[in-house]
Amino acid sequence: MKFLDLVKIYIRSGSGGSGALSFRREKFIERGGPDGGNGGRGGSIRAIPDESLNTLIDFRYRQHIFAENGKPGQGKRKTGESGKDVFIKLPLGTEILDEEQKLLFGEIISPNDNILLAIGGSGGLGNHHFKSSTNRAPRKYTKGEKGIEKVVWLKLKLIADIGMLGLPNAGKSTFLSTTSKAKPKIADYPFTTLEPKLGIVSASNRFMVLADIPGLIKGAHTGKGAGINFLGHIERCKVLIHLLDCTSSELENDYNTVLNELKQYNKKLLNMSRITVLNKIDALPKKTLQDQLQIIKKYENKIHLISAKNNIGTNEVLLECSKQIDLEHENFNAVCESKNQWNPINH
What is the rounded CA–CA span in Å between residue 42 and residue 69? Predict the structure, then answer.
């Protein structure tokens, strides 16, 4: 399935039905009064989650979404039928933005989310509504309210437990393929991965979602190499794996390039739990490997050495990810408990 994480759609809620102009007409009943019913409400448009989806590809050929109009009122004070609501099913992690992509209408982040994007128009009033002591035969009625029409952008940011980042050809796809059942495209050249891939990995009897984020390059935060789109998928992860190719002749520059792109895009990303990993250790002599290790030790105290190709050391990395996720949960729960503590000032 092709991945698509940004799409523009046009939505329009249903217009309300017009009120009815009608008078009671029955045998032996002279001068029957007004009995025009109200129009039905137009259908609304709502966004709801669908956990089976992980892409917005369905909207590539379905960019116009309209709700039903309400039916007009009828005689005998019958209210017109309301238009059916339209529910747009979106993957978890989808942001809904205005036409300028500046205002956030809402985001789908939990299975129970239900976001009203465009409310249906109210139905018009029938002439029965305008009956009064001074006007017993009103011929007035109102038309239904028009539906709301707008352009919205859908932007998907993957919800994953672990985000894997690094320069092109660092071995991220290989790591994903050896630790999960995902089958990403793998080759010995940069930019093999052109879209995010997800896989399920396990450690400590816990299943975790691992996202392979396409390789970053210098200038990714400005959009080079589709970097902005890719960086957005990192924001919702609980822990990051920073994968480095230990055979690189510019290892220190590789390390700093990725962290600088995170900083330029969003400084908060540098505060996320991050595990530094040197990959392809099977391709270097021990002496050379130790030299490369010392370069990164200037920046990191703990570094994992792995060979994703031979599945060496990968399980230890996943165990560390599991521990970091536990710490994130503990910190989150501690913050929630502190906020809920009784405070005499507030009582």
Answer: 5
